[in-house]
What does this fold into?
Amino acid sequence: MKSRKGLVVLAVVLFGALFFAFRYTGGGTDVLLSQRQRLLSAVGSLLESQHYSPKNINNDFSKKLFQKFLDELDGDKSFFLQSDINALQKYELTLDDEIKGAEIRFAPATGIIYEKRLTEVAALYKDILAQPFDFTKEETAMLDGSKMPYAANEAEQKDRWRKLLKYYTLERYVDLVDQREQNKGKKDFQVKTDAELESEARGLVLKAMNKRFDRIKSTVKEEQRFNTFINSVTSLMDPHTDYFAPVEKRSFDEQMSGRFYGIGAQLTEDDFGVKIASIQPGGAAWKSGELAVSDAILKVAQGAAEPVDVAGFATEDVVKLIRGNKGTEVRLTVKKSDGTIKVITMQRDEIVLDETFARSAVVNEGGKKIGYIWLPEFYADYERENGNRCSEDVAREIIKLKKENIQGLVMDLRNNGGGSLYEVIQMVGLFINQGPVVQVRDRDGKANVYGDQRPGTLYDGPLAVLVNELSASASEIFAGAIQDYRRGVVIGSTSTYGKGTVQKTVPFGNVVDMNSGRTDLGAVKLTFQMFYRVNGGSTQLKGIEPDIVLPDSYEYLKIREKDVPHALPWDQINKATYLTWHKDYGHDMVIQHENDRVKQNASLNLLKDNLVWLSKLNDEPASLNISKYRDLQKRIRSTVNQNNTLLRLSQEMNVAPAEVDKDKFFNNPDKNKGERYQAWLRSLKTDMHIGETIKVLNGLATEITKATAAVK
It folds into this structure.
């Protein structure tokens, strides 16, 4: 393991050094601009020379980049006017030159206009919300600004904002009126007039807008806008080629490893800012003895550096500031519950996010025990010799479940966006007896087959893989391999996400953390290969089509790869040589039986019809007339409530942790964590998709029992 890690890291670092490493010293505007120009050129050179399917960086690319950056800054066309776009039009065909070394002009020029419009709109929404709305008028508002052109002038922009704010106010006003009617006659409840409630509703919208704009002003500054510009460049190649600024690269590494260096405190957010929600026993915050639940965070400083005022920051923004590299110092300026202000200095400790690792439970239904494993992502911590790898964690969960004498196993990959290619290959190997798992092709057309080299299986019983529209990348490799081998049954929505591309990270600049290899200028996550199923088909765009299709809440939302601009096309290569699973007891019969049952299930058909209707509402203008609004909302609530009922089992399943895990769930030293584990367990008991999957596995287990008895 260690030697493999060393080779991978060496290859990536050498690549980065060869093409793009550059050093800089000092500060000042000229140095900063020069640094940005070199970074932008380095990214462009990387894309043209190493991307799997690069687009030529020419005038056509420049035109697309021009609109892409504007969309990233103002996708709903709330700020820019058409005159602003016209003024910036002179840069439309020069952005390819900027990428290739010319002076960077477009992003700074756009930033000046953006900040001007931001200030104007901040005053505009306050002026609009100072006046009452008339909800009896016949008006509509298009809530999706991307479907409209830029406002022709300030008057049109003001009218758009007026309608949007009127809709937000209408939402809150109706809620307040309903609360008044429900609480009339109750002791100490103050009954307000319609006018008072309308004023209160505008106040709530004003507070929300102030918070939104404070965050924009605090976080969308020049540096962030430049990072967004680079990301606009990378995303034109394909949706999964991204630039990570240093703090974003650290966040990405943390997600992949399930570990980070922080203070061991959970944060929450309310109308007054970001506060401490809970403190993890044994963490830096707990050891300090100075930080307490409900302390409000005012400022965050990196060691002795100038503190950053976090007023207007969202929770995730503050989290990024508090986390950092191993052993570094962070200083929090907090406001205590008694009003005193205190500066607390802490050394960052390692925090393990074990709640993001694989976990399991046992379902007792239909007279059989079925194991259930939830895997949120294909994580891999290669920075540490003993770091968590999902394949090893899943193997441990399987061993636990086998001791519980399970007769079937569910691998739940819903919402699993992927992760390590190596880990998914190892994980498929837990269920098959050697053979290819995935094919990978590079930009030169050369395809390599990667597979399980270990003889034997860890688990050879009935298997089901549960997926949905957000199961992507490594999840699709796993589900596709299990399906191609006829090793198990894939169950879920009509298709998975459809991501068939492979990425690697290429660092830029000087190393700032020797433990992780992170650098001061971040990295690019670059698409450099495509993967294919062993049957030769790509998962790109098409995803995996389950053996058994079940409707779910996301089915008709446009969130798959095929709905994303600049996605690479589908293709196929030659089939690999592999043998299907030898224990094929009732596989096709059980699938056919379940599909027939689903087609005839009136509840599932009703759920499907409801989802189709709800999805179409997104494309329609919203009424600002209170009567029409109420009528539509009543129907929406009724439909959503009906869907929630249909997505829940009417009778709870018997679900419990494995015997060895009971203390983790019910006697966890971290009380909050223990309660979250218990809440997760409860959520499984009424999950319709899990319930349907259990029925399939019970059917397979029954067929295996029959076949085994017949052989005897």
